[in-house]
């Protein structure tokens, strides 16, 4: 990590992602860097993980300070995975306490933990709330047992309302994740899941289309013809149904796949990613960003632990993202936001080609003409699912 971009002011905010790479069972569609207990040995065990993560925090802080970065406050923290709540709540509390002993939380900071509904109890959620967690994100995925079985999800859908109520009782915001486009899923199944979600009145919903990565159990099932991939028309119909029913229940979309009841219940941690802020990525395989310098950790927990035992940052590689690439990435990410992006903030939008493509998409109804007059590039409601295509046309 020898390239050192010019540091921002010391007052710049920081987001922190803490990857918990453990799952009770690996879901058939999942390609995340996760491991079951039987796959781990050496120093990469769940029992030793909190100490390893705290050790990495110390080393990352030292590396930042050596490069001239000294963040005054942490804006958001996100425990992701994997299943963070497979660890005892005291372990998550200890990692959060250690992190905030290094850099304090900003006033009103968002602290989220992902959870499976069957990996929490009333007592564990209360402990997390006492430790400073402000938001629970439950991986519901579907309310339909047959869809959950296809996804290899192990929780009982009847457990979700109970977990949501426990989080509510602890004073936490609640987000629910759903997946649509599971092989064999019907539009009636999608509707049942959305109706179950609105019945629980969460603060936030993430609705992701299923993407099957090549090296997964589900990909092999699809290649063997055991499952059938949903057609694009079904995916579009499912998204429109989800959006319409959520919006009828008082939600607003603020990113193509994310809906919140108010500005105050958006996921600020994800917004930090989409806006290109700086973040630490703690844990095996986690990514870190610092003013255009990106690095990523070794993936296997045992190798990660061994490097930390040698007082070495567990970094596998790094790159400095150039200005042009950063502009393209900003366009890709921020055009998915309901707020859009200021056109004068990107040089690439000033080219003749970009202006021609923007005019074309305004005529097609995928870009907002009134927003453009105000100097903002923003997709229309009809253009949400076509945002990636708009970007391709602008940058091609």
Automatic annotation (TrEMBL):
<keyword id="KW-0004">4Fe-4S</keyword>
<keyword id="KW-0408">Iron</keyword>
<dbReference type="InterPro" id="IPR034505">
    <property type="entry name" value="Coproporphyrinogen-III_oxidase"/>
</dbReference>
<dbReference type="GO" id="GO:0051539">
    <property type="term" value="F:4 iron, 4 sulfur cluster binding"/>
</dbReference>
<dbReference type="InterPro" id="IPR013785">
    <property type="entry name" value="Aldolase_TIM"/>
</dbReference>
<keyword id="KW-0560">Oxidoreductase</keyword>
<dbReference type="GO" id="GO:0004109">
    <property type="term" value="F:coproporphyrinogen oxidase activity"/>
</dbReference>
<keyword id="KW-0949">S-adenosyl-L-methionine</keyword>
<keyword id="KW-0963">Cytoplasm</keyword>
<dbReference type="Pfam" id="PF04055">
    <property type="entry name" value="Radical_SAM"/>
</dbReference>
<protein>
    <recommendedName>
        <fullName>Heme chaperone HemW</fullName>
    </recommendedName>
</protein>
<dbReference type="GO" id="GO:0005737">
    <property type="term" value="C:cytoplasm"/>
</dbReference>
<keyword id="KW-0349">Heme</keyword>
<comment type="similarity">
    <text>Belongs to the anaerobic coproporphyrinogen-III oxidase family. HemW subfamily.</text>
</comment>
<dbReference type="InterPro" id="IPR004559">
    <property type="entry name" value="HemW-like"/>
</dbReference>
<dbReference type="InterPro" id="IPR058240">
    <property type="entry name" value="rSAM_sf"/>
</dbReference>
<feature type="domain" description="Radical SAM core">
    <location>
        <begin position="8"/>
        <end position="252"/>
    </location>
</feature>
<comment type="function">
    <text>Probably acts as a heme chaperone, transferring heme to an unknown acceptor. Binds one molecule of heme per monomer, possibly covalently. Binds 1 [4Fe-4S] cluster. The cluster is coordinated with 3 cysteines and an exchangeable S-adenosyl-L-methionine.</text>
</comment>
<keyword id="KW-0411">Iron-sulfur</keyword>
<keyword id="KW-0479">Metal-binding</keyword>
<dbReference type="InterPro" id="IPR007197">
    <property type="entry name" value="rSAM"/>
</dbReference>
<keyword id="KW-0143">Chaperone</keyword>
<dbReference type="GO" id="GO:0046872">
    <property type="term" value="F:metal ion binding"/>
</dbReference>
<dbReference type="GO" id="GO:0006779">
    <property type="term" value="P:porphyrin-containing compound biosynthetic process"/>
</dbReference>
<dbReference type="InterPro" id="IPR006638">
    <property type="entry name" value="Elp3/MiaA/NifB-like_rSAM"/>
</dbReference>
